[in-house]
Structure formats: structure tokens, C-alpha cells
């Protein structure tokens, strides 16, 4: 039997009914959006269908996320550095880094101070270094740039860098001869903790360490081809003034406790005068190289000082006798003098 077509009036009725259903559905959808408006404005619900970013039907990612906090390791900064330098001995090893390796570590330090930790990590990882965040027992946070493994640290002896994370970097303290100039690292630690805005550059080998490249290859105060010098130069390029701490035997200059020098340049002379006065205020006998000859302790041939002098950046070369370095109370007084000058640098003076 042939089916007869439905009357035209019935078709129109069916169409009206369909439109009524669609209108009702639309009204319910609009009402739902109104009721959920606060959520929709927060970006967690959409009423217009999936956005282009979520057209595959997956839930949209939030428009912005807070960066995940960097992993932080709790540590006593003084103990950590002291334990490290205790392992630096004259019979240790040292490898002269290549130009690429020196540049990579220096670039990592630059990137970190620019606030780009990811770029710093990439540059450092390329040469087996890493950056870590330390929460010191006193509450301050520091970045540690060091060999990624203990094996690499012992074998290469390139050293470490510590940067205060409380704010921008304003100055640097350098310890080129840990172990050889005993307890000079304590001066560096005390200064880094005592004044904000510091960067500590710490050598990683004894100056007499075996390198297979000559007897003085590990003496980073007198070699341009070291990670230590590369980092120091990078900081000088940022106009960060520096104080480099050393130690001398009491018999070398028996009438003095400290020798203060602006190195081979003149940019550091005003700071050197202030530092000498600060040491005297702590009861120490100071030999000022601009006033008299202080023997072979004047730091005129120091390579980091030469670079800073050519750049017109203040550089202070400071020697401390054994009596000062062996006495915790005198170390604390020396640190107070150093902190005084670092704070003037931090204040832009």
C-alpha cells in the first residue's frame, strides 16, 4: 500500500513544536550561564562551547599558573662551605678548564643574576655544573653554583659560587686560596652573611694542586684560564666591586695584622681608605700600600685586580695574618670591617 503524505497543516504544526523545544533548551542554557556566571568569569566554565585551545574536548588549562617554587635545601651555609674547603688539600687534583667551560659557568652566573634561572641551569648543565637554592639557618636564601657531582668537584677543582637571593647583587667577595691561606673562607662566609647583595666566588683547589699543567696552574689569583677568573670578570663587567681576601704568615710582616691594597688600579682607592679605617677601628694594625711599602703582599699582579682596574671597577686586595685568622674573635672583627665597606657598596657609595 502506498503511504499518503501528511497534510501540510500537520507538517507546520510539527515544525512549530520543534522550534518550541529548541527555544526552551536555549532558555535553559542561558539561565545556566547566568546562575554560573561567577564561575564562568573565573575562567573555569565556558558557555560558548570549547575554546580553540580546548577544541579536542579536554578541559581547558587555567589561563595563568604560578611558577612552581624552586626546590630549596635547608643548610647551614657556614658548615656547608667549611666542609667543602676542608677537602681542599695540596695533594688534590685540578684540571685547567677550556675556554668553552669557563664561558659556560660565567654565562650561568650572569643568567642567574639576571633572574633567568632556567637559562642559568641550561648553561651550567652543559659543563656538568648545577644551581641549587639553599635556605641558611639564619633564614636567608642563597643560590649555590657548583659541580653537579662530588666526583667532578674533586677531580676538576673549579670551585663554587654563592649568590644572595634577598635582592640584586651589589658586590663580590673572592676567596682564591682556601686551605692554602687557612680560614680565609671564614672571612668570605661572614661577609656574605653580614651584608645583603653579595656574591661569593670560591676557588675549588689548593694553589699547589697537581694539574699536569705546571706548578702554578691552580693558583687562580695569577691565572687567566680559570673558572674563578671568568666569573670574577663577568661580575666586574656588571660593575660589581670586589674584595679578595688572603692570608700571610705573621713573620712576613710582624708589625701588622692586615694589608689593604686597591690592587693595580686606582678605582678602589677611596674604598681601600675606608676599609683601612674600619680595620683600625677594630683595633687592628693596618699596612696601607698607598702610604708605605708592604712587602710582597700588595696584590699588584693579581689577575682579577688587573681586569677590574682596566674596567674602572673598585677592587680591594686584603691580606690577614695568621694571628687574626686563627682567632674566631678577631675573624669576627675583621668581618665587621669588611661588612662596613660592603654596605657602602650596596648603598651605591
Provide a compact summary of the structure.
The protein has 349 residues and is α/β, with parallel strands linked by helices.
Task: Report on this structure.
It comes from Streptomyces roseoverticillatus. This is Lipoprotein. Residues 1-42 form the signal peptide. Residues 47-80 are annotated as: Disordered. Keywords: Signal. The chain has 349 residues and is of the alpha/beta class. Helix content is 41%, strand content 15%. The longest helix is centred in the N-terminal third of the chain and has 28 residues, at 8-35. The chain has 12 helices and 10 strands. Helix 3 (77-86) packs antiparallel against helix 7 (184-194), helix 4 (99-113) packs across helix 8 and helix 9 packs antiparallel against helix 12. The chain has a 10-stranded mixed sheet, with helices on both faces. The radius of gyration is 32 Å and the shape is globular.
Secondary structure elements and pairings:
Elements: H1 8-35, H2 37-41, E1 72-74, H3 77-86, H4 99-113, H5 117-125, E2 129-135, E3 141-147, H6 150-156, E4 160-164, E5 171-175, H7 184-194, E6 198-202, H8 227-237, E7 242-248, E8 258-261, H9 269-281, E9 286-288, H10 303-311, E10 315-321, H11 322-326, H12 328-346
Parallel strand pairs: 1-2, 5-6, 5-7, 7-10, 8-9
Antiparallel strand pairs: 2-3, 3-4, 4-6, 8-10
Helix pairs in contact: 3-7, 4-5, 4-8, 7-12, 8-10, 9-12
Q: How confident overall, as mean pLDDT?
A: 85
| SS element count, helices | 12
Shape: globular
Number of strands: 10
- Give the terminus-to-terminus CA distance: 107 Å
Largest sheet: 10 strands, mixed
SSE arrangement, N to C: HHEHHHEEHEEHEHEEHEHEHH
Query: What quaternary form is this?
Result: single chain
Determine the fraction of residues in helical runs and give it as a percent range. 40-55%
Radius of gyration based on Cα positions: 32 Å
Estimate what percentage of residues fall within beta strands.
15-25%
Overall structural class, as computed from helix and strand content, comes to: alpha/beta
Q: How are the strands of the largest sheet arranged?
A: 1-2-3-4-6-5-7-10-8-9
Low-pLDDT regions: 1-15, 20-24, 29-68
Amino acid at each position: 500500500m502506498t503511504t499518503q503524505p501528511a497534510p501540510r497543516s500537520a507538517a507546520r504544526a510539527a515544525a512549530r513544536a520543534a522550534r518550541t523545544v529548541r527555544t526552551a533548551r536555549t532558555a535553559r542554557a542561558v539561565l545556566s550561564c547566568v546562575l554560573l556566571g561567577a564561575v564562568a568569569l573565573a575562567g573555569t566554565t565556558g558557555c560558548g562551547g570549547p575554546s580553540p585551545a580546548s577544541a579536542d574536548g579536554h578541559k581547558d588549562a587555567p589561563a595563568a599558573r604560578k611558577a612552581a617554587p624552586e626546590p630549596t635545601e635547608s643548610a647551614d651555609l657556614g658548615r656547608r662551605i667549611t666542609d667543602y674547603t676542608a677537602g681542599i688539600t695540596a695533594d688534590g687534583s685540578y684540571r685547567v678548564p677550556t675556554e668553552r667551560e669557563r664561558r659556560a659557568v660565567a654565562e650561568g652566573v650572569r643568567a642567574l643574576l639576571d633572574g633567568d634561572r632556567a637559562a642559568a641551569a641550561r648553561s651550567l648543565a652543559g659543563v656538568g655544573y648545577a644551581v641549587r637554592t639553599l635556605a641558611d639557618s639564619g633564614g636567608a636564601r642563597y643560590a649555590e653554583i657548583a659541580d653537579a657531582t662530588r666526583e667532578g668537584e674533586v677531580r676538576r677543582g673549579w670551585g663554587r659560587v654563592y649568590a644572595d637571593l634577598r635582592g640584586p647583587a651589589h658586590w663580590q667577595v673572592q676567596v682564591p686560596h682556601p686551605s692554602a691561606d687557612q680560614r680565609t673562607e671564614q672571612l668570605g662566609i661572614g661577609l656574605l652573611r653580614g651584608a645583603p647583595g653579595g656574591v661569593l666566588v670560591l676557588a675549588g683547589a689548593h694553589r699547589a694542586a697537581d694539574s699536569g699543567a705546571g706548578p702554578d696552574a691552580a693558583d687562580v689569583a695569577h691565572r687567566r684560564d680559570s673558572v674563578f677568573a671568568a666569573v670574577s670578570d663577568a661580575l666586574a663587567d656588571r660593575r660589581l666591586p670586589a674584595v679578595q681576601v688572603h692570608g700571610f704568615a705573621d713573620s712576613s710582616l710582624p708589625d701588622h695584622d692586615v694589608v689593604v691594597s686597591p690592587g693595580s688600579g686606582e678605582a678602589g682607592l677611596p674604598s681601600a681608605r675606608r676599609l683601612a679605617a674600619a680595620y683600625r677601628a677594630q683595633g687592628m694594625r693596618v699596612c696601607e700600600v698607598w702610604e708605605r711599602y708592604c712587602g710582597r703582599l700588595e696584590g699588584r699582579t693579581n689577575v682579577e685586580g688587573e681586569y677590574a682596574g682596566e674596567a674602572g671597577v673598585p677592587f680591594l686586595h686584603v691580606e690577614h695574618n695568621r694571628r687574626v685568622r686563627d682567632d674566631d674573635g678577631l675573624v669576627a672583627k675583621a668581618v665587621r670591617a669588611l661588612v662596613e665597606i660592603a654596605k657602602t657598596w650596596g648603598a651605591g657609595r
